[in-house]
Amino acid sequence: MTDTKRRPIRWAMVGGGRGSQIGSIHRSAALRDSMFELVAGAFDIDAERGRAFGVDLGLDAARSYADYAAMFAAEAARPDGIEAVSIATPNNTHFAICKAALEHDLHVVCEKPLCFTVAEAEELKSLSAARGRIVGVTYGYAGHQMIEQARAMVRHGDLGEIRIVNLQFAHGFHSAAVEEQNPSTRWRVDPKFAGPSYVLGDVGTHPLYLSEVILPHLKIKRLMCARQSFVKSRAPLEDNAVTLMEYDNGAIANIWSSAVNAGSMHGQKLRIVGSKASIEWWDERPNQLSYEVQGEPVRILERGMDYLYPEARIDDRIGGGHPEGLFEAWANLYRRFGLAISGTHALAPEGLENLVFPGIDAGLEGVRWVENCVRSADAGGIWVDYR
CA 215 to CA 151: how far, in whole Å? Predict the structure, then answer.
C-alpha cells in the first residue's frame, strides 16, 4: 500500500464504549492508516462511565459527551469540530443517530442494519445526497482481499455465466439461550431493540453484501424465506432462516442464516457456480480462495500473490505468505471510507480511485432484503417480488 499525505478526518464515535468488542474493532480499523483522528465521543448510555472511558482513550473530558445530541451540537460550534462519526449502538437507535448526524453535515459510518424499514433507508439516502455526505455501512468482511479477487474473476469471465450462488453465515454460539446470562446478547433477540429480525439482519446480510460486491450485475427478482425460532423464547424473532432467491438473469441463490448451527465457529461461506468454473470462500480461512475449473484439479489461490488480479492486490499490507485477518479487512474498509469522505480519490493508490465500499445503497439493500424475507416468512414462506 502507498501512503498518501492528508490531514486526518476529525472523527467521533457514538457507542462502542468500555467492554465493547465492536467498538475496539472500529477504533483499530479507523486509526490504522492515519485516515481518521478520534477527537470526541459519546461512548456509553451512562454519562460518567462514557466520560471516563473517553479520558482513558486520551480525549479531553469536555469532548467525552453524555449523549450524541449534545456532542453533535457542541462539536458543530467548534472550529475544529468533528467531520465524521461512527455509530456502534443497538439497532433501534441507528436511524435517529444517522439522521441527526447527516443534519449536522457529518459523514457517517454505521453498524448494520442502517435502520428498520426501506422508507427510513430511503429518507437517509435522500438526506445524504442533499447534504453531500458519505454514509458507510460496516460490512467488514468485504475488506478481505480475496473478495476483490472473486469480483475480478467474475468480471473477467473466468467462471462463465453465473448460475448458482450458495451463501451462508451459520454459527453455533447461540444454540442455547445464552442471552439469559449475557446482556450484550439479550438485546439482539428483543424486537424492541433488534427490529423485525434476528439472524436475517445480524448475519444474513453479510454474505448478501459480499454477493453484491462480487456479482454487481445480478439483481434479485423475487425470494422466498422460511424462518424458525428453535430457542422458543426468541419468538417472534428467528434464530435460523433459509432464503431462496431468483435473479433477473435466471440464476438462483440461497442464504442460510443461523445462530444455532451447533459446533460451527463462524460458518460464513460463499460458493459461486458458473458455466465454466466455481469459486468458494470461507471467512475462517479468508486468505484463500478455491478456484475449481470443471475437469481440472482444484486450485487454491493465496492472498498477496502476483498471479492475482491487480484489483485484489490494491490493499496488500504485508505481502504474500503472511496471513491477514478481520482487523486488516476492517482497516481496508475504513481506508476506503476515508478516501471517499476526504474526496481525494486522485491521491489514492492506483485502483482505489474507483472505490468499492458498502455505502448508503448497500445499507438500503440490506434493509430491503430483510423486509422482504420477513414479509415472505410471515406469509407462510411464499414467493414475493423483491421490489
Answer: 7
Domain 9-140 has CATH 3.40.50.150: no
Segments making up each domain of the chain, as ranges: 9-140, 145-315+359-378
The CATH fold assigned to 145-315+359-378 is Dihydrodipicolinate Reductase; domain 2 (3.30.360)
Give residue 314's Cα distance to chain centre.
20
The sign of the dihedral angle between the CA atoms of 141, 142, 144, 149 is: positive
Which residues partner with 293 through β-bridges? Answer: 277
Range name among 4-8, 90-94, 119-123, 243-247 with the lowest pLDDT average: 4-8
Please write the tens of the pLDDT for every residue from 281-320. Answer: 999 999 999 999 999 999 999 999 999 999 999 888 888 9
| Residue given cell 447534504 in the structure block | 131
Each residue of 187-201: pLDDT tens digit? 999 999 999 999 999
Contact between residue 259 and residue 174 where contact means Cβ atoms under 8 Å apart: yes
Q: Which residues contact 317 (CB under 8 A, 6 or more apart)?
A: 1, 324, 328, 331
Q: How many CB atoms lie within 10 A of CB 271?
A: 16
Q: Alpha-carbon distance 32 to 202, whole Å?
A: 26
Question: How many alpha carbons lie under 13 Å from residue 366 in its C-beta half-sphere?
Answer: 31
Q: At what angle do helices 118-131 and 360-378 cross, to 10 degrees?
A: 170
The grid coordinates listed for 290 are 478455491
Residues in the chain: 387
Alpha helices by DSSP H, the chain: 21-31, 47-56, 68-76, 94-103, 118-131, 145-155, 183-186, 191-194, 199, 205-214, 310-313, 326-342, 360-378
Domains 9-140 and 145-315+359-378 share a fold: no
DSSP letter (8 states) at residue 345: G
The predicted structure's pLDDT at residue 351: 52
Contact criterion met (CB below 8 Å) for 221 and 246: yes
Quote the pTM value. 0.94
